[in-house]
Amino acid sequence: MSQDVGDEQQPAQLALAVQLPDDETFASFYPGDNVQLITALKNAAVGQGDEVIYLWGQAGSGRSHLLHAACADVNAAGEAATCLPLHAYKRMSPSLLEGMELLPLVCLDNLDAIAGVDEWERAVFNFFNRRRERAGGSLVISASAPSRNLGLSLPDLASRLDWGVAYQLKTLDDEGKLSALQLRAELRGFKLPTDVGRLLLSRLSRDMSTLLAALDLLDNASFQARRKLSLPFTREILGL
């Protein structure tokens, strides 16, 4: 079973068997200039390629989506994976990492969130060592900056991040974002007209989380109203 940890749970109540977002797969991720990275992650999900993958990119670039997608592929193969959202470290215990080295895929999302947090840095460092001793399986780590720019206080942890291969997750330009929105709409069973997509890009924040939230809202509204998406309908629903 693939696993993720909800950031709203208290440490004593954390359950690792939480379903991953079912719409965050490789099929729903528009690759843009990230084909090589996606190939590496797909290989990691089947136990091939690099044992350690470090990917970094700005907020909203899709880092968590790709980690969830890798876990989803492992899940589809009947194996176990875990994605630990380190931005929620205050609600979790570092002891969660104990035993995770036995899983075929472990993803540590938003590593920069624990920079300077001694107990978590040491827990991740020790996890790296246990993972290395075990051999086999894949480790995928995401952050917002290159490993040497994270401000980690434990030098040995920073050096561990250089064990594998690093990729910068390249953000989409506006045309790429339009294609990504149309892909997501297609997967949800409706069509996003190009003029509507361009309206979203011109009037809303260009980060993908905002754009996808607007797409979801439009999908639900058009279904309930039994109307196809159009510029007037979109302006009406979103107040543009």
Automatic annotation (TrEMBL):
Example GO BP: DNA replication initiation
The Hda lid domain, residue ranges: 174-238
InterPro entries assigned: Chromosome_initiator_DnaA-like, Hda, Hda_lid, P-loop_NTPase
Gene3D superfamilies the UniProt entry points to: 1.10.8.60, P-loop containing nucleotide triphosphate hydrolases (3.40.50.300)
PANTHER family: CHROMOSOMAL REPLICATION INITIATOR PROTEIN DNAA (PTHR30050), DNAA REGULATORY INACTIVATOR HDA (PTHR30050:SF5)
NCBIfam families in UniProt: DnaA_homol_Hda, PRK08084.1
Name of protein: DnaA regulatory inactivator Hda
Organism: Oceanimonas baumannii
